[in-house]
Amino acid sequence: MTFREYLLKMKGSTKSPPGVGIGELAWSWLGAVLGIGLCGYLSSQYFEPKDQSLIIGSFGASAVLLYAAIKSPLAQPRNLVGGHIISALIGVACFQLFGNTIWIASALAVSLAIVAMLATKTLHPPGGATALIAVIGGAKVHSLGFYYALLPAGAGAIILLIVALLVNNLSRNRKYPEYWV
User: Fold this and answer.
1) Strand runs (DSSP E) across the chain, as ranges?
2) Domain limits for position 58
3) Is 84 within 8 Å of 153 (Cβ atoms)?
4) How many whole angstroms separate alpha carbon 150 and alpha carbon 144?
5) Is residue 175 included in any domain, yes or no?
6) Residues 70, 74, 77, CA angle at the centre, nearest 5°?
7) Structural domains in the chain (count)
8) At 181, is the secondary structure helix, strand, or coil?
9) How far lies 28's CA from each of 92, 121, 126, in Å?
10) pLDDT tens digits for 129-155?
11) Which pLDDT tens digit goes with each residue over 76-111?
12) 14 Cβ neighbours under 8 A, 6+ residues apart
């Protein structure tokens, strides 16, 4: 392949997808505000007073998939829950083994999380962030150890899933999930 052919691959080969109607905007907004709002509320009222959390940054990206890209294989329940839990476990292990060198722990956490999600058919891109947060999240996250995979990663993902099941199926034009396993 020539350098020119290589660069031409970056041009793209299809048109951008069409825009969405006001109904899709409204359902996506409602799901996101309820899902993230519920995790945030429960975190602030019940978990943070106990020096724990039920919300992590990667849930913002999960909300995009769960409430706006509901047909995507990356947004299905297996991928959501499995992707966060598997990635959290890997992130914690990488921090515990290589935490003295954060850049190595970070690179290994994300790359190994990707490989594990691919191997287990649980690919969920926010899982990469969940793994990274396990490494760079600071003393509060590090003190959780492997418990981080259950709370906040697993429990928060399940709350987002419950909201996705309830909200996405209210509309006649939406059906979620496409599959469970």
Assistant:
1) none
2) 23-168
3) yes
4) 10
5) no
6) 75
7) 1
8) coil
9) 32, 25, 18
10) 999 999 999 999 999 999 999 999 999
11) 999 999 999 999 999 999 999 999 999 999 999 999
12) none
